[in-house]
Design brief:
Order of helices and strands of chain A: HHHHHHHHHH
Oligomer: homotetramer
CATH topology of the largest domain in chain A: Tetracycline Repressor, domain 2
Strand content of chain A: under 5%
Number of strands of chain A: 0
CATH class of the largest domain in chain A: Mainly Alpha
Largest sheet of chain A: none
Largest interface: C-D, 52 and 54 residues
CATH superfamily of the largest domain in chain A: Tetracycline Repressor, domain 2
Shape of chain A: elongated
Radius of gyration of chain A: 22 Å
CATH architecture of the largest domain in chain A: Orthogonal Bundle
Chain lengths: 220, 220, 220, 220
DNA sequence: GATGAATGAGAGTTCATTCAT
DNA sequence: TATGAATGAACTCTCATTCAT
């Protein structure tokens, strides 16, 4: 009569796992991997200590799960972006801008996970580095491929290395994300993207004589 | 086997402190602040536990010392770069390239410290964030000022935001550093810098008609 | 040899806390606050290191708990003693004696706690001094008030300072406690109390003829 | 020319030892045995770490030396008091008062050492208990002997136990010392001693008319 | 499934003591 | 005789993990 309760409503395992994953994401995002304690996670998930270990083998395991879930989301997004048609020079700069804005928005909407991925995965524990390196490589390859296509279509200078361009793009993107977007929810993403695209465009624009008619204009 | 150890090699305090600082840098670079243990540091420095605390009040204190020492070096370097004369458009791109190369080389030569700065400072522990933010801001201001001067001299497009440009430059720089230079001692820094400068130049080059006479100038 | 230990005996939290409190009291009583190690406490309580910190936030915290628990007991006892009726001169000396005996017995029954209170609180660490000073003051006030009542009833000389008397009484009491009661479980508390009360009442002045009718009697 | 100095003026060993002893007394008095660090002592004595161990084998050893030095002083004082002539009842109470005052003054003048003796020696570390117990016993014996002499001279009631009286006296004395004298340099020692002596002599029994011929007067 | 009391290795830090100079 | 850099055992406290219920 006293002991009658204590045990919690059993939940469908998938649901409970999901709750734990969300709690973990929230905690990792705010404290980082090492400072985050299992105690923090179970406190937020409102489950008992033991319950946590029913769903994840270790603290490391949840972190991996959190990271991988987000990696998957990013890869999805990456593939979704391939849907857009190549178009011609006329709309290219606008499309570059929209692409950047879309990415910035995506990460802004997943601030928490982004913090984890960018801060933790890029280091501290070598065990988590591999997954991040792979994701990064995927992104680089993706953008490099895009540059390559644009070069083939003569929409981008042919003398530039597509791989290196991809890296430079990622670098600029990271910086905007860290310096403006993640730290300020009210950041003007469209403006940032426009500036990046403008810079990117005039940097990658094909050679001079074509340019006299400028990229914005449609060729006659 | 037992007696062989238990060294006792008194060293001038400055020397010992330096050795500890180097050991700490090495450890922090590889493990990050939280994962790094004082045990790791004394193991590498080959001193007893107590010796460490003879020179640094706490783990936090060594970390700060490591970071500040490097921050100071960077600020020195930053000021040293102001010495270079402005020059004209003809040599600008080459100078941009050389500047980037110089920086890459500087960080490549301080691989360990760089890892600490880039990984920890970008955070995890809010106590260390401030110093990094300030340094970053110093760098941004520095480059923004340079862009402003170049704009005044009509060597850079006036429509670009100098501050944002500075951020983009830093982002690209970080990426090259992380993706190529820090991970590969044999990275071709000159080539990387040349590509970055090429990209940067064509992005920031003043408007078109001037460009026909532009720095590269096609031979007639 | 290895497997034999590693018990794991979950207990109701209140019970475990109590056990730890008792172990801590025992240890503090014998070693004093500073010399007592958490290791000593867990060894005696037969729990793991972590278990201790499950119930007390710090070594300081257990000590405070031990001290406060005992302070509370003493204050209770102090109030309980006010129940006794004032009575007349005839029974006063007997009542003084009984009061002292009761106190001695009380402390004899709480030997361990008493050692902690009397040794630590009287100092070493200023953080713990306040509580002791307050308790002591409570006791002084209590006894001073009693002397004042007795003076009003003309049962005690009016020229004496009640406060100072209270201090002197406490001093004698402490001494009996330390010199006889705490160190010897078989001490004859009744006899000690009788002697103290006799002295308290009559002082050391020789029996003059008037006094043969002694203090118990009222002068005719 | 740089290394010429560092070594300090060699001092006569006895003098240096004395300086260290004084520094140690000062430190122990303020921090207690455990909290006091050898560092504190050498800092105050302005000698190097190793020098300390040239004069004392260990921290424990200095403490013992400090304690014994003071014990010796006390025993000297104790013997000095035996010089006073017994006198008759007329001046006895005044002599009791003066004796108490003299002791209070003695300890007030050696506040530092007194703190060490009373706080540390009365415990914490069983190693130091013996010396204190012996000193205390010496004092008890001394005062008990005096009471015995006074009883023989019929100046003190014969029914009282001299030993117990000695303890009670010591207890009251300790209390005045702790509660008033040690904590307040401006304490009115004469008044305290007068009250103690008055109480010691007369107890708390009300003034009966017979007593008006009381102890101060010589019986007719 | 779910609980939470219990565990213990290991973290950062202190300090009495030693000994090469 | 005097120095002070060096030592390492011992301390308090943390937290990922286990398991009896």
């Amino acid at each position: 009569m006293l002991a009658m309760s204590r045990r919690r409503t059993p939940l469908p395992p998938d649901r409970r796992r999901q709750l734990l994953l969300e709690a973990a994401t929230w905690v990792f995002a705010r404290k980082g991997y090492r400072a985050a304690a299992v105690s923090d996670i179970i406190l937020r998930a409102e489950v008992a200590r033991g319950t946590f270990y029913l769903y994840f083998a270790s603290k490391q395991a949840v972190f991996l799960a959190v990271v991988q879930a987000f990696h998957d989301r990013i890869r999805q997004e990456l593939q979704a972006m391939d849907a857009a048609p190549p178009g011609d020079a006329a709309g290219l700069k606008a499309r570059l801008r929209d692409g950047v804005a879309r990415w910035l928005r995506f990460f802004a909407e997943h601030r928490d996970e982004t913090r984890v991925i960018l801060r933790e995965a890029s280091s501290i524990d070598p065990r988590f580095e591999k997954g991040y390196a792979e994701l990064r490589q995927t992104a680089v390859s993706h953008f490099a491929a895009r540059y390559r296509r644009l070069q083939a279509a003569r929409l981008v200078r042919g003398t530039l290395s597509p791989d290196l361009l991809a890296h430079l793009l990622l670098g600029m993107f990271d910086e905007l994300l860290n310096a403006f977007v993640l730290s300020d929810p009210a950041a003007d993403i469209e403006a940032l993207a426009a500036e990046l695209a403008d810079f990117e465009w005039n940097g990658i624009a094909p050679d001079v004589e074509d340019r006299t008619r400028g990229p914005e204009r449609t060729a006659p």
